[in-house]
Amino acid sequence: MSSLGEAPVVQRDVYRHLVLRKRLILVALAALLLFSVLLDLALGPASYSLGEVLGALFSPDSAPAQVRVVMWDIRLPVALMAVAVGAALSLAGAQMQTILNNPLASPFTLGISAAASFGAAMGLAFGVALFPLAAQYMVPVNAFIMAMLSALLIHFLSMRRGVTAETIVLLGIALVFTFNALLALVQFFATEQAVAAVVFWTMGSLTKATWPKLGVICLVI
Q1: Which tens digit of pLDDT belongs to each residue from 122-160?
Q2: In terms of DSSP H, where are the helices of the chain?
Q3: Are 75 and 60 in contact (CB under 8 A)?
Q4: Chain centroid to CA 147: how far?
Q5: Which residues have C-beta within 8 Å of that of residue 19, sequence separation ≥ 6?
Q6: Which residues, including other chains, have CB under 8 Å from residue 102's CB and lie 6 or more apart?
Q7: DSSP symbols for 58-94
Q8: Which of 115, 172, 173 is nearest to 142 (CA)?
Q9: pLDDT at residue number 103
Q10: Domain boundaries, the chain
């Protein structure tokens, strides 16, 4: 009887140990992330010490004008955008892996990223706006619409009888090849400048990050 009574206690201790371990890992990763952001703010064509960086962040009025402008107008939006983009990608991957119970599921393996690239390429190469009311944000809106259409297609097909998680992953891989072929077709008919713009967009860049764009990303997350 004593051994049976001790079993739940041992299980609780093991569970608490696992929870504590996960919390410590999260704290360590958060500290590493904070240090990486500060290091990113300090390094560049004009290098600053961590003390100068912290001074410009927490006391911008007393910091030199050059340091304040470099930190708040140039480097800080880019650094925070990198954090936001990483959070968005990890959240999307975790959602898909949980829903499909498959560690290989991601926006890339399910064709959603390929669909977004095709939508953006249509706007960059031919000026096609899938939502004319937002023509000034044509490229990101096109990418969002195509990504949502791809996700809805996968969703509706997954509701059919007999469809398993493996079937959905295979469907996503088929969508990857389909949209990649359409993207190649767009690049074939596009001009050299448009092809360069498409390649640059699909590779991604944070150099044009601004505070308003960062606000949009955070709102979406």
Answers
A1: 999 999 999 888 778 899 999 999 999 999 998 898 888
A2: 2-42, 50-58, 65-69, 76-100, 112-126, 138-158, 165-189, 192-203, 211-220
A3: no
A4: 13
A5: none
A6: 165, 166, 169
A7: H-GGGS-HHHHHIIIIIIHHHHHHHHHHHHHHHHHHH
A8: 115
A9: 82
A10: 7-102, 108-190
